[in-house]
Design goal:
single chain; mainly beta; 10% helix; Phage integrase; Integrase_DNA_bind_dom; Integrase_DNA-bd_sf
């Protein structure tokens, strides 16, 4: 059974600081916040993961 991610709050996002390794915070429904390591500047980027449905024209 898949885990259900709880929605991120503004406070959680602002208070999470960069670490030595990349940090991924999942917001659910394919949305995640990726925080780069300090060595790479510690930038915060949002990613949306989705799948394109396969259509059989057959």
């Amino acid at each position: 059974m898949a885990k259900i991610a709880k929605k991120l709050t503004d406070t959680e996002i602002k208070s999470t600081k960069p670490a030595e390794k990349e940090v991924n915070l999942f917001d659910g429904d394919g949305l995640l916040l990726r925080i780069a390591p300090l060595a790479k500047g510690g930038k915060k980027n949002w990613y949306f993961r989705y799948a394109v449905p396969v259509v059989n024209d057959g």
